[in-house]
Design goal:
heterodimer; B: alpha/beta; Rossmann fold; 2 domains; nine-stranded mixed beta sheet; six-stranded mixed beta sheet; 39% helix; globular
Chain lengths: 288, 409
Amino acid sequence: MDLAIATGIQALTGIATLLLISLGLAIVFGMMRVINLAHGEFLMLGAYSAILAVQAGVNLWIAMLVVAPLCVGLLGVVVERLVIRRLYGRMVDTMLATWGLSLALIGAVTMIFGNTVSGFSAPLGSVRIGAYSTSGYGLFLIGATVLLLLAVWAVLRFTPAGLIARGTMQNAGMAAALGVPTERVYALSFAAGAAVSGLAGALMAPFSGVLPTMGTAYIAKSFITVITGGAAMLAGTASASVLLGGVNTLGTFATTPVLGEVLMLAVAILLLRLLPQGITGRFFRRAL
Amino acid sequence: MHRRTVLTAAAGGLAAPLVFRHAALGADPIKVVGIHDASGGLDIYGKPMVATLEFAMDEINAGGGLLGRPVQLINYDPQSNIQLYTQFATQAATRDKAAVVHGGITSASREAIRPLLKRYNTLYFYNTQYEGGVCDRNCFCTGSTPAQNVNRLVPYIMQKWGKKVYILAADYNYGQITSKWVVKYFREGGGDAVAVDFFPLDVTNFGPAIQKIQAAKPDIVLSALVGGAHVSFYRQWAAAGMKQRIPMASTTFGGGNESLLLSPEEGDGITCAFSYFQEVDNPANAAFLQKFKAKFGAGTPYLGGELAMRTYVGAQLWAEGVRKAKSIDRMKVIEALESGIGVDGPPGRTVLDPKTNHVTLDVYVAEVQNKGFKVLQHFPGSPPSDTQSVCDLQKEPNANKQVVVDVRI
């Protein structure tokens, strides 16, 4: 029984991790159809913002939950102004530009901080579950992810800004004809996506260590999750995270870490063969 | 994603060759090339190794150089990237025409450049503790091997903690082979391994592994994990509250400056065996550390376990070989080295074994204490018996291989 609970928590942590690292990408892709190849670097910059803030004496929680999303969100505004705005509707060009941005960011961070691993320890100590113990921070990660998902959903579902955002997402031309400043909606969406990525990177930092190339470890996984999820931004990412994160963690338990990853990729490939439009192309079609 | 490494590689490649010139000694310098990862995931080992190699070369030059010539050290930084290893090794052999190459940290990097340097007839020193079995007259392995370190570590921890071990190892030749040795020594002592798990070098999430360990209920956890990413295992282990419940030993922890990366609460008590620890208490070590600190000042790296010290000793052994051969000709130096050269230094006495080109050395068992080590046991004069059992370069001078020692378990 204890083992089942401990394993369940571990699986939930894996799912939360995947959801967390994919959500920012899903917002940008879902809202704007922009494929942001610099997504991994947004995560990385979130982690660096947090670690620098901690080193500067800022409280750990403020560094992770406030400083990191703020810094990366601001960067998102700048990137949207300078790069993304000029390339709307040109998907391949956007990919190329954001890829260049990702290389530039890795290079810049490597030059400033060096190609070396830094990190800070997870707060919150450990939690006993019968004969097992697990890290309290893992549980916090699960809770934070659920809250973040709910917050994004509530904003989109219940606020006027969310209504405008959804309208722009569904039919930008019509929204513009009704007087919605679509350019500003896009700019804010991109900044929001970047801020969520920054937050995710900071939350992952105590687990993963922080280095300039850490984004590369995440970007493939987050893309697979978003694509497997399909058109519905939140429901898609969440369902894909549950499926792939669950398979990965349980596969790792049953076999080895390598086979766990292989199993997850195999499931993603199989799924895209059966459901080319992603999970939400078939199920939860009317969800957000 | 290779494209991402391309840019960092290109940028680093331009900046990498740190050339140290010694104008004081006028003659044509003897070129020594060092190839160590001073950046990337392995920099926790590489940076101190670069420092000790610089120190050794400065010391040689301060003593008048070798054969009346100064030595010139050329350092390359392969950035924890195997491709750059082969590139820099080729450069060292063909462009720099190095008298000797010191370098390689992981066994994977060694096996990338060892055959290459043999082909180019360039003398090679590998100064890292590793899994044993390299049989190549051109390659001198000056670090300790499982018959020297694991052989001492396992009886100590079994006697102290119990007979059931859970092994976590890095997923490449070092981890694969070393974990077999650990199992062998545990079985010889009447114990056994409940499980062996392997992790690629970029794995950072050890959550599932930690739950599996709890389910298996071992007496001891033994880590043969490698590099900066794997350091997160020790953090997660402590965060899960496991440190108070199951004691840990490691064949790799503290080889570099891992102990500095963890807080005392996370690190204290991890038990390791190496052929040197910075805390080894003898006059030679005290004198060395004093001079070392004088050179690097506030930036003095912590040496931890043996990797950096073995690099220093490797450089000393090579210099002894050159002095004895009165030449930097590769074969003459090899023959001089194989005449049974030894040096006394901070880790104790190191003697080259002409049969295997490995070394007989002192081994220490120590535990992490307050970001450093506390030395618990000292075993002088341990021979590399694992490699000796499979390699005889006197009989087979043309051997060029790594024999995987058939660990009978």
